[in-house]
UniProtKB/TrEMBL annotation, chains A, B:
Gene: Iah1
SUPFAM superfamilies: SGNH hydrolase
Organism field: Casuarius casuarius
Functional description taken from the UniProt entry: Probable lipase.
Gene Ontology molecular function terms on file: hydrolase activity, acting on ester bonds
Family to which this protein belongs: Belongs to the 'GDSL' lipolytic enzyme family. IAH1 subfamily.
One Pfam family from the record: Lipase_GDSL
Keywords: Hydrolase
UniProt cross-references to InterPro entries, sorted A to Z: GDSL, Iah1-like, SGNH_hydro_sf
UniProt superkingdom: Eukaryota
Entry protein name: Isoamyl acetate-hydrolyzing esterase 1 homolog
Keyword Hydrolase: yes
């Protein structure tokens, strides 16, 4: 039997996907044992994990590009979860980083409008996970800033206000949220979770993957393993098992 | 402006993809600093790297499922490369592992028919990369077999014949090939490239990623970085930059 004919007999498989939407902490999610790679490994044979991370972006820009990334067609059916992970740039200090800074109130409005957009393409709130920015280790990040000839352009307490607003949006909209800012500071020194005071270290990435998994697990629990386990294939008549 | 309206103004972005099609060595490609994760990281903002690895599968089963994984619609436009990486199971010894074994001649025919199928959906030979099975470290793999109550069910010399057939198919069909079996044994002890005598260790995975990259690089060199670098966004009027 020609392969094209075989393909016509078996339906094209719809491969579901998890979309990771965010800034540089998402764009780097497949680096060095990253949280994106960890999720992709856990979800292999169930769905793809696709990276829609944009270094340096804030929610003002993110809400503009979101409809260019996720459209109406087949979205709801194939997208099992979307993470929205911004705030590290929005919370940059206005005076020192006006390009990336987004006022606190607007940050919350932008998050709400992204959730609203996703719902309009049938990605319901139960499929959405907000992630707050991680805490900022000011001394380490200051070194990065100084190396570029800049002053410290973010404050941990300010980032904390954005994290709180993110949690409130999640509560109001009925989505899940991983409050990384709070979780990473809970009864522990959070410095080892960060590589440069702002981005995640391998340990921080593992921490996020574990926290995310507890939200994702219930969203993916009904997904079947795609195509049979090899020991279950009828090797005398494989097409019966595979088409 | 409502987000749905913004989406209508900017076109939905077609996100290209690299498809990794293979057996368990592909299915594990996002584990522990794996070769799939390394490629996904290198190709971030350019294309997705999706895992179509099926542990235990051989080319007889792979050719049946391929049309269920890659269909005609938009394939050529969105798929920039496909790796086909089988042989570790095909080359299992017939007497000791009849379920996974595929005769040498049929293995070559199956590879050819998969290339033929991809061409029929406009994924031309210049987008296809064959990968030969890695060498087998018999003593380590024998331990795995014995632990399951089996005898050693593969031989490195036999796997080498399959690797040679794979290289010949690539030559005949005009596709690229990464001859892992030969490269890993070239002037070096290959044991550190394997975790259990058959699957790749982190070092072996890095080796494969580096070898693959030299083939992939030219296939992806013309891909643009998707959406502008953040410093290039006009922050006074971001929609001009982003839509």
């Amino acid at each position: 039997m020609a392969l094209a004919e075989a393909g016509a007999r078996g339906r094209l498989l719809l491969w579901p996907r998890v979309v990771l939407f965010g800034d540089s902490i998402t764009e780097h999610a497949f680096q060095e044992w990253g949280w994106g790679a960890a999720l992709a490994d856990r979800l292999v044979r169930k769905c793809d994990v696709v990276n829609r991370g944009f270094s340096g972006y804030n929610t003002r820009w993110a809400k503009v590009i979101l409809p260019r990334l996720i459209g109406k067609s087949a979205s709801a059916e194939s997208t099992v979860a979307v993470t929205i992970f911004f705030g590290a740039n929005d919370s940059a200090l206005k005076d020192l980083n006006p390009k990336q800074h987004v006022p606190l109130e607007e940050y919350a409005v932008n998050l709400r409008s992204m959730i609203q957009y996703l719902k309009s393409v049938d990605i319901t709130e139960d499929k959405i996970i907000l992630i707050t920015p991680p805490p900022l280790q000011e001394s380490a990040w200051e070194k990065e800033c100084l190396a570029k000839g800049d002053k410290l352009n973010r404050r941990n307490s300010t980032t904390g206000e954005y994290a709180e607003a993110c949690v409130q949006v999640a509560r109001d909209c009925g989505t899940d949220v991983v409050d990384l800012w709070t979780l990473m500071q809970k009864d522990q020194d959070f410095s080892s979770y960060l590589s440069d005071g702002l981005h995640l270290s391998t340990k921080g990435s593992n921490f996020l993957a574990a926290q995310l998994w507890s939200c994702l697990e219930k969203k993916v629990s009904t997904l079947p393993s795609l195509l049979p386990y090899w020991r279950d294939v009828d090797h005398m008549n494989p097409e019966v098992s595979l088409l």
